[in-house]
Specification:
This protein has 615 residues and is of the alpha+beta class. It has 13 helices and 24 strands. Strand 1 and strand 2 form a beta hairpin.
């Protein structure tokens, strides 16, 4: 959104001042301030990120494109696009469009209300007494809005709430009066001085409160420029605070980049094919899946490389990217990464480079760990695919997951790619089987999983197949991340987990975890995290992590808790022992139990690492 230019009078005549800067970090435009979310800016402005239709006039330029063939095939897109980067010095070349939402504003001095439009400026109060300068005082956006579980959002129906009989919003003289009679919603009065109707906001957040005043969802999609939907949604509206956490749930798909086959490439060939414009020209000009010799020869002559070698390397890349089976489920997608991390040969020049060490090199840890991968380089791509409201949903086939654009033929989605390093740990499968059959682990998590799935079913979500093995691997990742914050220079918010645990296909067993950082420098690594995976350091890291997991400052309440955390989805896990920043955990700090890794005081065999030399 481009606000109107203002003029300032000076000694040399009128001068134009640029529109106010509203910077948003590139990564935040994927989450949490992606398309459809409200963002508060300076000067009491609330804006909503607009859809992709108006991000670029033409197709995004090559420098903003991200090539991630595996994820693009799964999401049925050609490529992904980085949001333009904001720069205070030179100014951004592109500006991400925003619309104004909520539309209702009120004056903080006289409480007069005014309704603007999606593309209008910030309203000002016309009362001269409200502003010392006499130019009008800026109004602030309303505190509450309404949303439905189908993902639509619209303004709170203030006029319907009080029973206003005026012909239109313009005719009404609305006031938002925050009195001192009560600190609750009962102290906020909505009044129309023209028709003399008034009512407090008491009860506005109750489930059926808006249905009582005949307020139903109109299907509004402000991020697509629609104050009213193309057709009425009819779903029940729920009152929510503008900054509430349930107003926006981004659906983000992530992927660890797996390099295609590059056996026919040398450094010069790789440099040519890694140029986005050249690779786009070669890959888009294929004939029946084969590279066009004339196109390859032209690029080879331009870059000064052998045409035959370039053709062979380009064809190898095409075969590697299109010949691989497209993963339909998230588990199949993870299996492809797991297989590469465990078995595939990687090259230091690739964007995924793993050095593997056998678990036998790690002393006592070899009884539990099959192998350790020192992931010196990796690239992660995070793609915003949609969003939901009130209830988090990520299945793109669900109609409650809102789309990001009106034009559904756009060949791209917004994404960011980040480079870093990590530690991959493959847990020994035989040790897990022995632990599962010889302990009470399955019985301990059974009631929790049943209750967890019952709550998901009540929220119209599909049940999940979760077992003690998954919760053990998940809790181990949390314990190691918390310990790594003391052992290396990364904060817990800079480390992320990626879990590999098969729950549906026994033919593709996965028992591993990846702890990685996506905040490395331009070369993709800082080295501190990988160094902790050396044979002389990792066992000590495990010992310290397990020692801390044995005891929590909230014990015995934490250890004996029948259900804790979000929707009671944890056992022995709290902020004092296991929980991490939300950006670090894939499961939203759910499905954790430190008893599964370190055991209980009265049942040490419950923990998977029951024989570890914990000091």
């Amino acid at each position: 959104m481009k606000p109107a230019w203002k003029t300032k009078k000076g000694a040399f005549g009128a001068k134009k001042s640029p529109p106010p800067a509203r910077p948003v970090r590139r990564a935040q435009l994927i989450a949490p301030f992606g398309i459809g979310s409200m963002n508060d800016f300076r000067n009491d402005e609330a804006l909503m990120c607009a859809g992709l239709d108006n991000w670029f006039i033409t197709l995004p330029e090559q420098t903003l494109r991200i090539q991630e063939e595996r994820l693009a095939a799964r999401l049925n897109r050609e490529f992904f696009v980085r949001p333009p980067e904001f720069s205070e010095e030179a100014g951004p070349k592109y500006k991400i469009p925003h619309v104004r939402f909520p539309l209702w504003h009120y004056c903080p001095r006289c409480f007069r209300m005014k309704r603007t439009t999606l593309f209008g400026g910030q309203p000002v109060c016309e009362e001269k007494s409200c502003s010392r300068s006499g130019r009008g005082r800026r109004m602030i956006p309303a505190r509450i809005v309404t949303a439905c579980e189908s993902g639509h959002i619209e303004d709170f129906p203030f006029r319907k709430w009080i029973g206003c009989t005026c012909a239109s919003d313009v005719d009404a003289e609305m006031y938002f009066k925050a009195g001192r009679s009560a600190a609750s919603l009962a102290g906020i009065k909505i009044e129309c001085t023209k028709c003399k109707q008034k009512r407090s906001l008491a009860g506005a957040f109750e489930k059926e409160s808006l249905s009582a005043v005949n307020a139903t969802c109109s299907g509004a999609q402000p991020w697509l420029g629609r104050e009213v939907g193309l057709e009425s949604c009819g779903a029940a509206l729920q009152t929510v605070q503008r900054g509430s956490s349930n107003v926006y749930f981004p659906a983000v798909q992530s992927s660890i980049y797996i390099p295609p086959a590059q056996a026919a490439e040398n450094d010069d060939i790789r440099r040519v094919l890694d140029t986005p414009a050249i690779w786009m020209g070669i890959s888009s000009g294929t004939i029946d899946g084969k590279v066009n010799p004339q196109v390859v020869a032209a690029f080879a002559a331009m870059m000064g490389v052998d045409a035959t070698a370039l053709a062979a390397a380009a064809q190898a890349r095409l075969d590697g990217s299109t010949g691989q089976r497209i993963a339909v489920t998230e588990e199949e997608f993870r299996w492809q990464e797991y297989d590469v991390l465990c078995n595939a040969a990687t090259d230091p020049a690739d964007e995924l480079f793993v050095e593997r060490r056998s678990g036998k090199d790690y002393g006592w840890l070899g009884n539990y760990v099959r192998q350790v991968g020192l992931v010196r380089k990796l690239r992660e791509t995070r793609v915003l695919t949609g969003f939901s409201r009130l209830m988090p949903k990520s299945d793109l086939s669900d109609p409650a997951v809102q789309r990001l654009s009106i034009d559904q033929t756009l060949p791209w989605l917004p994404a960011i790619d980040v480079r870093g390093e990590g530690i991959f740990i493959e847990i020994d499968a035989e040790s897990i089987k022995k632990w599962m059959s010889g302990t009470k682990a399955a019985g301990r998590v059974g009631p929790l999983v049943a209750d967890f799935n019952a709550r998901r079913t009540a929220r119209m979500l599909s049940p999940r197949n979760v077992d003690a093995r998954f919760m053990m691997i998940h809790t181990l990742a949390h314990a190691l991340i918390k310990e790594l914050t003391f052992a290396c220079g990364y904060g817990s918010a800079s480390l992320r987990e990626r879990l590999y645990c098969n729950l549906a296909n026994e033919k593709q067993p996965m028992n591993g975890l990846l702890i990685y950082t996506a905040s490395g420098d331009s070369e993709g690594t800082l080295g501190g995290l990988v160094e902790q995976a050396r044979p002389d350091r990792l066992p000590r890291l495990f010992e310290d992590a397990l020692r801390r997991a044995r005891w929590c400052s909230n014990d015995p309440i934490c250890m004996e808790s029948p259900g804790d955390g979000t929707v009671s989805s944890n056992l022995a896990a709290c902020h004092g022992c296991s929980l991490l920043p939300e950006t670090s955990c894939e499961e939203g700090n759910r499905l954790l139990d430190r008893g599964l890794i370190a055991g209980k005081i009265d049942d040490t065999l419950l923990g998977f690492f029951n024989g570890a030399p914990i000091p």
